[in-house]
Amino acid sequence: MDVTLIGVPIQIGAGRLGCEMGPSALGIAGLHAALADLGHGVRDIGNVAPRPFTDMPHPNPAVHHLAEMAAWIEVLSEVAFRESLSSMPIFLGGDHALSAGTVAGMARRAAEEHRPLFVLWLDAHTDFHTLETTVSGNLHGTPVAYFTGRSGFEGYYPPLSHPLDPARMAMIGIRSVDPAERQALKGSGITVHDMRMIDEYGMGVLLRGFLERVKSENGILHVSLDVDFLDPSIAPAVGTTVPGGATFREAHLAMEMLHDSGLVRSLDLVELNPFLDERGRTALLMADLTASLMGRQVMDRPTQDYVGSRS
After folding, report:
1. Strand 2-8 to 88-93 pairing
2. Nearest-5° angle of CA 230, CA 233, CA 238?
3. How far from 280 is each of 158, 240, 242, 286, 287, CA to CA, in Å?
4. pLDDT in tens, 167-208
5. CA 181, CA 173: separation in Å to the nearest integer?
6. In whole angstroms, what is the distance from residue 56 CA to residue 181 CA?
7. Distances (CA, A) of 164 to 4, 22, 103, 172
8. Going by C-beta distance under 8 Å and a sequence separation of 6 or more, which residues neighbour residue 182?
9. What are the backbone angles phi and psi of residue 281, rounded to the nearest 5°?
10. What is the three-class DSSP state of 169?
11. Which of 238, 182, 281 is nearest to 14 (CA)?
12. Which residues on adjacent β-strands are paired with residue 47?
């Protein structure tokens, strides 16, 4: 298929600097070449940037970079809608706040095609805070609340033309939820599979059930992959590490199943902080996982050697 790589050097939503280098790191890790080798037509449009903005105060004094976040949502929503017309957009983050814009744009695209949008959220966190409930003020904790239409964003984030139906969202890998988020999730309709569910039932069972729902409703699927979905022992380059994440094989199984489903129309790769990486290992893993989602099979996977090739 045709793929469009879109750099999103946003780090204002996170508490630690460094995510703005994520798009460059994914490029150095060979993402473009990996996708081209699989036969996809790859177009890299470089980094996008928000429009000029002015300060936007909020009653919650913890909230920061609110006006800039609104500008990012605006441009990303438009880019997602535009690029998804004739290609699969892959958004190279950047922190997870970017998904407020990408999902909003894909929801508009799905409505244009008269099909429902589903979202698969692979993350350690639910990111279900509103501007009122966030204690840290870090806006990468708010995208899900925003694009599912929770109140509290009016007058700050751009109006949503098509909020996502929470019943069409599944979160997998969750293991860190704040009290306010936990309370709000109870009646939300969102399917939440924490790591215990993966331990008990397995990645394949949980993901297969969700994919069957997407297919049965003729939906299109947006996947949002956060580095901290993975266990920090294999993916250290993230500012919000939570022990006990997905293993290498669990993550690749998820990607392989997503490819087999043929349902994925867009992808976020977020929270990669190269400043915290070890010789690029997390960037390489994220590129490798993307290749699995795009069709690389186990028999096609090259051996990675930091010293030299064995062939």
Report:
1. parallel
2. 60
3. 36, 18, 20, 10, 11
4. 999 999 999 999 999 999 999 999 999 999 999 999 999 999
5. 16
6. 24
7. 23, 27, 8, 17
8. none
9. -65, -35
10. strand
11. 238
12. 7
What angle is formed at CA 81 by the lines to CA 79 and CA 84, rounded to 5 degrees? 95
> Does 309 have pLDDT greater than 50?
no
Extract the tokens encoding 115. 């099909």
**Structure tokens that stand for 291 in this block:** 């290749």
**Domain layout of the chain by residue ranges:** 2-300
Beta strands in the chain, from DSSP E residues, in sequence order: 2-8, 41-47, 88-93, 117-122, 169-174, 191-194, 220-226, 264-270
**Catalytic residue numbers?**
96, 123, 125, 127, 140, 226, 228, 271
May I ask the CATH class of domain 2-300?
Answer: alpha beta
pTM: 0.95
Rounded to whole angstroms, the Cα distance separating 242 from 228 reads 7
Segment holding 166, helix H or strand E: none
Model pLDDT for residues 256-277, shown as the tens digit of each residue: 999 999 999 999 999 999 999 9
Q: Are strands 2-8 and 191-194 parallel, antiparallel or unpaired?
A: unpaired
| Rounded Cα distance, 39 and 109, in Å | 25
Q: Which amino acid is at 75?
A: V
Paired with 268 in beta bridges are 91, 224
Instruction: Give the type of residue at 210.
Output: F
Task: Give the integer Cα–Cα distance in Å for 56 and 155.
Answer: 10
How many degrees, rounded to 5, is the angle at CA 212 between CA 187 and CA 40? Answer: 115
Q: Can you give the pLDDT at residue 240?
A: 86
CA-wise closest residue to 227 among 164, 180, 261, 276: 276
Start-to-end CA distance of the chain, whole Å, equals 30
Bond preceding residue 94 cis, omega within 30 of 0: yes
